[in-house]
Amino acid sequence: MFDTMTLTKLLGGFCGALLIFLLGSWASSAIYGSYGHYHPEQAYIIPVEGDEVSDEPVEEGPSFEEVFASADAAAGEALWRNCQACHATEQGVNGTGPYLHGVVGREIAAVDGFNYSGALQEKADVWSPENLNAFLEDPSGWAPGTSMGYNGMRRVGDRANLIAYLDSLDD
């Protein structure tokens, strides 16, 4: 039923279709520009009544230091499950990311045998709780060019709990 010629035709058809889709994608990018990279300036601004900017400071909530002082390591252990896909808590066991045993207070890029991105090495010297907080909030914003593909943890309480859990691992 299937001979060499039939399989060759199927493979050729698949490769041809793939080529057409790739060429179409390339052509549309050339015509319309890359999506997400084109930021035109606004041509005009429509004034709106009552849209004055206030000089009063906006309250942002408690600072990280206040939240970290009352952080719960047990709650951070539940949040650790999101990190387990790439990291390990056992010392010397690297995954996609470096092991995180003793990470709080450790020098950045100090794990032997792990290839860190240069973005982290240029940003800071030590993984202090404040540096970890900033990194976990927005990894690519804090260290542009980092190879960590995580979008970040938005809630300051969650970040504080996770850092408290990581700090409790090495006593």
TrEMBL record:
Organism in which the protein naturally occurs: Histidinibacterium lentulum
Keyword annotations of the record: Electron transport, Heme, Iron, Metal-binding, Transport
Keyword Cell membrane: no
InterPro entries documented for this protein: Cyt_c-like_dom (IPR009056), Cyt_c-like_dom_sf (IPR036909), Cyt_c_1A/1B (IPR002327)
Domain Cytochrome c: 71-170
Protein's UniProt name: Cytochrome c family protein
Example of a GO MF term: metal ion binding
